[in-house]
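Help! Submission page says 'invalid entity' but I think these are all valid:
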Amino acid sequence: ETGVTQSPTHLIKTRGQQVTLRCSSQSGHNTVSWYQQALGQGPQFIFQYYREEENGRGNFPPRFSGLQFPNYSSELNVNALELDDSALYLCASSLVGSVHEQYFGPGTRLTVT
Amino acid sequence: DQQVKQNSPSLSVQEGRISILNCDYTNSMFDYFLWYKKYPAEGPTFLISISSIKDKNEDGRFTVFLNKSAKHLSLHIVPSQPGDSAVYFCAARGNFGNEKLTFGTGTRLTIIP
Protein backbone atom coordinates (compact mmCIF):
# COMPACT_ATOMS: atom_id res chain seq x y z
CA GLU A 1 0.00 0.00 0.00
CA THR A 2 1.47 3.34 -1.07
CA GLY A 3 1.15 6.25 1.34
CA VAL A 4 0.39 9.88 0.56
CA THR A 5 3.21 11.59 -1.31
CA GLN A 6 3.74 15.28 -2.05
CA SER A 7 6.03 17.21 -4.33
CA PRO A 8 8.12 19.22 -4.19
CA THR A 9 9.49 18.96 -0.66
CA HIS A 10 10.64 22.57 -0.53
CA LEU A 11 9.95 25.56 -2.70
CA ILE A 12 11.03 29.19 -2.71
CA LYS A 13 8.97 31.72 -4.62
CA THR A 14 8.82 35.48 -4.96
CA ARG A 15 5.83 37.58 -3.95
CA GLY A 16 3.36 37.86 -6.84
CA GLN A 17 4.36 34.58 -8.45
CA GLN A 18 2.19 31.49 -8.85
CA VAL A 19 2.86 28.02 -7.45
CA THR A 20 1.51 24.51 -8.01
CA LEU A 21 1.86 21.82 -5.37
CA ARG A 22 1.12 18.16 -6.06
CA CYS A 23 -0.23 15.27 -4.05
CA SER A 24 -0.74 11.57 -4.71
CA SER A 25 -3.39 9.99 -2.53
CA GLN A 26 -3.04 6.76 -0.66
CA SER A 27 -4.12 3.80 -2.75
CA GLY A 28 -7.90 3.35 -2.68
CA HIS A 29 -8.67 6.77 -1.20
CA ASN A 30 -11.13 8.95 -3.11
CA THR A 31 -11.05 12.17 -1.09
CA VAL A 32 -8.21 14.63 -0.78
CA SER A 33 -7.96 17.60 1.55
CA TRP A 34 -5.41 20.39 1.65
CA TYR A 35 -4.25 22.17 4.78
CA GLN A 36 -1.96 25.11 5.45
CA GLN A 37 0.18 24.99 8.57
CA ALA A 38 1.84 28.25 9.51
CA LEU A 39 4.72 28.24 11.97
CA GLY A 40 3.53 27.48 15.50
CA GLN A 41 -0.03 26.82 14.39
CA GLY A 42 -2.17 23.81 13.70
CA PRO A 43 -3.12 22.86 10.16
CA GLN A 44 -5.87 25.05 8.69
CA PHE A 45 -8.34 23.52 6.24
CA ILE A 46 -8.09 25.01 2.74
CA PHE A 47 -10.47 22.79 0.77
CA GLN A 48 -11.40 19.23 -0.01
CA TYR A 49 -12.03 17.37 -3.27
CA TYR A 50 -14.22 14.34 -3.81
CA ARG A 51 -14.86 12.84 -7.24
CA GLU A 52 -13.02 15.76 -8.83
CA GLU A 53 -15.38 18.33 -7.32
CA GLU A 54 -14.68 20.77 -4.51
CA ASN A 55 -16.49 19.51 -1.41
CA GLY A 56 -16.02 22.17 1.23
CA ARG A 57 -13.73 25.15 1.56
CA GLY A 58 -12.15 26.90 4.48
CA ASN A 59 -11.54 30.61 4.95
CA PHE A 60 -9.09 31.08 2.09
CA PRO A 61 -9.34 33.54 -0.82
CA PRO A 62 -10.12 32.44 -4.40
CA ARG A 63 -6.46 32.69 -5.40
CA PHE A 64 -6.16 29.33 -3.67
CA SER A 65 -7.57 26.77 -6.09
CA GLY A 66 -7.32 23.07 -6.61
CA LEU A 67 -7.87 20.11 -8.87
CA GLN A 68 -8.46 16.44 -8.35
CA PHE A 69 -7.74 14.03 -11.18
CA PRO A 70 -9.47 10.73 -12.08
CA ASN A 71 -6.66 8.81 -10.39
CA TYR A 72 -7.43 10.83 -7.22
CA SER A 73 -4.15 12.74 -7.31
CA SER A 74 -4.50 16.44 -6.67
CA GLU A 75 -2.97 19.86 -7.18
CA LEU A 76 -3.06 23.00 -5.09
CA ASN A 77 -2.53 26.25 -7.00
CA VAL A 78 -1.84 29.57 -5.37
CA ASN A 79 -1.80 32.74 -7.46
CA ALA A 80 -0.37 36.15 -6.60
CA LEU A 81 1.71 34.81 -3.75
CA GLU A 82 1.94 36.88 -0.58
CA LEU A 83 4.54 36.72 2.17
CA ASP A 84 1.92 35.26 4.55
CA ASP A 85 1.50 32.28 2.25
CA SER A 86 4.82 30.98 3.58
CA ALA A 87 3.85 27.77 5.35
CA LEU A 88 3.85 23.99 5.27
CA TYR A 89 1.16 22.73 2.91
CA LEU A 90 -0.24 19.34 3.80
CA CYS A 91 -2.28 17.01 1.68
CA ALA A 92 -4.44 14.33 3.29
CA SER A 93 -6.39 11.52 1.73
CA SER A 94 -9.29 9.53 3.06
CA LEU A 95 -12.09 7.25 2.00
CA VAL A 96 -15.37 9.07 2.32
CA GLY A 97 -18.09 7.23 4.19
CA SER A 98 -15.68 4.68 5.59
CA VAL A 99 -13.20 5.63 8.25
CA HIS A 100 -12.88 9.12 9.58
CA GLU A 101 -9.12 9.21 9.74
CA GLN A 102 -7.21 11.23 7.20
CA TYR A 103 -3.75 10.14 6.17
CA PHE A 104 -1.30 12.98 5.67
CA GLY A 105 1.63 13.40 3.37
CA PRO A 106 4.92 14.89 4.56
CA GLY A 107 4.03 18.33 3.23
CA THR A 108 5.59 20.95 0.98
CA ARG A 109 7.43 23.78 2.69
CA LEU A 110 6.72 26.98 0.72
CA THR A 111 8.75 30.10 1.37
CA VAL A 112 7.66 33.37 -0.24
CA THR A 113 10.25 36.14 -0.31
CA ASP B 1 -12.19 32.06 16.11
CA GLN B 2 -10.27 29.13 17.57
CA GLN B 3 -12.83 26.35 17.83
CA VAL B 4 -10.33 23.77 19.04
CA LYS B 5 -7.87 24.83 21.70
CA GLN B 6 -4.81 23.26 23.19
CA ASN B 7 -3.79 25.60 25.94
CA SER B 8 -0.49 23.95 26.81
CA PRO B 9 2.13 24.64 24.13
CA SER B 10 4.55 22.22 25.76
CA LEU B 11 4.72 19.42 28.31
CA SER B 12 7.66 17.50 29.78
CA VAL B 13 7.16 14.09 31.38
CA GLN B 14 9.53 11.57 32.89
CA GLU B 15 9.90 8.31 31.01
CA GLY B 16 7.56 5.66 32.39
CA ARG B 17 5.13 8.19 33.83
CA ILE B 18 1.74 9.17 32.46
CA SER B 19 1.45 11.96 29.89
CA ILE B 20 -1.85 13.82 29.79
CA LEU B 21 -2.59 16.16 26.91
CA ASN B 22 -5.69 18.32 26.99
CA CYS B 23 -7.96 19.82 24.37
CA ASP B 24 -11.08 22.01 24.55
CA TYR B 25 -13.59 22.77 21.84
CA THR B 26 -16.43 25.21 21.42
CA ASN B 27 -18.51 23.92 18.50
CA SER B 28 -21.33 21.59 19.56
CA MET B 29 -21.60 20.31 15.98
CA PHE B 30 -18.35 18.38 16.28
CA ASP B 31 -19.13 14.67 16.36
CA TYR B 32 -15.74 13.02 16.05
CA PHE B 33 -12.41 13.79 17.65
CA LEU B 34 -8.95 12.67 16.68
CA TRP B 35 -5.42 12.92 17.96
CA TYR B 36 -2.50 13.23 15.59
CA LYS B 37 1.19 13.01 16.33
CA LYS B 38 3.74 14.93 14.30
CA TYR B 39 7.48 14.51 14.06
CA PRO B 40 9.64 17.19 12.41
CA ALA B 41 9.71 17.01 8.60
CA GLU B 42 6.81 14.55 8.57
CA GLY B 43 3.07 14.93 8.15
CA PRO B 44 0.73 14.34 11.09
CA THR B 45 0.14 10.66 11.85
CA PHE B 46 -3.22 9.46 13.10
CA LEU B 47 -3.04 8.16 16.65
CA ILE B 48 -6.48 7.53 18.10
CA SER B 49 -10.02 8.81 17.74
CA ILE B 50 -13.32 8.91 19.58
CA SER B 51 -16.89 9.37 18.52
CA SER B 52 -19.06 11.83 20.39
CA ILE B 53 -21.34 8.96 21.48
CA LYS B 54 -18.53 7.48 23.58
CA ASP B 55 -16.63 8.81 26.55
CA LYS B 56 -13.52 6.64 26.32
CA ASN B 57 -11.49 4.84 23.71
CA GLU B 58 -8.38 2.83 24.39
CA ASP B 59 -5.64 1.56 22.10
CA GLY B 60 -2.62 0.06 23.79
CA ARG B 61 -0.79 2.75 25.74
CA PHE B 62 -3.12 5.46 24.43
CA THR B 63 -6.51 6.36 25.87
CA VAL B 64 -8.71 9.26 24.87
CA PHE B 65 -11.40 10.57 27.19
CA LEU B 66 -14.26 12.77 26.07
CA ASN B 67 -16.37 14.95 28.37
CA LYS B 68 -19.11 16.34 26.14
CA SER B 69 -20.74 18.49 28.79
CA ALA B 70 -17.42 20.24 29.42
CA LYS B 71 -16.45 20.16 25.71
CA HIS B 72 -13.13 18.71 26.76
CA LEU B 73 -11.05 15.77 25.71
CA SER B 74 -7.74 14.41 26.87
CA LEU B 75 -5.16 11.96 25.64
CA HIS B 76 -3.42 9.74 28.17
CA ILE B 77 -0.19 7.98 27.32
CA VAL B 78 1.00 5.42 29.81
CA PRO B 79 3.75 4.51 30.22
CA SER B 80 5.44 7.36 28.34
CA GLN B 81 8.40 6.40 26.16
CA PRO B 82 11.16 8.52 24.57
CA GLY B 83 9.68 7.82 21.11
CA ASP B 84 6.52 9.60 22.20
CA SER B 85 8.36 12.93 22.05
CA ALA B 86 6.55 14.84 19.29
CA VAL B 87 3.94 17.51 18.70
CA TYR B 88 0.41 16.29 19.38
CA PHE B 89 -2.58 17.84 17.65
CA CYS B 90 -6.16 17.50 18.69
CA ALA B 91 -8.62 17.66 15.78
CA ALA B 92 -12.38 17.67 15.46
CA ARG B 93 -14.74 16.75 12.66
CA GLY B 94 -18.30 17.98 12.36
CA ASN B 95 -21.35 16.74 10.54
CA PHE B 96 -20.81 19.29 7.77
CA GLY B 97 -21.00 16.98 4.79
CA ASN B 98 -17.27 16.77 4.26
CA GLU B 99 -14.20 15.46 5.99
CA LYS B 100 -12.92 18.83 7.14
CA LEU B 101 -10.81 18.64 10.29
CA THR B 102 -10.40 21.57 12.65
CA PHE B 103 -7.09 21.39 14.46
CA GLY B 104 -5.79 22.82 17.68
CA THR B 105 -2.41 24.56 17.82
CA GLY B 106 -0.60 21.53 19.19
CA THR B 107 1.28 20.52 22.33
CA ARG B 108 4.94 19.63 22.18
CA LEU B 109 5.52 16.61 24.39
CA THR B 110 9.04 15.87 25.58
CA ILE B 111 9.74 12.61 27.36
CA ILE B 112 12.73 12.87 29.67
CA PRO B 113 14.78 9.65 29.92
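Support: the input was valid. A stray whitespace character was the problem, and the output above is from the cleaned input. Chain A has a mean pLDDT of 91.
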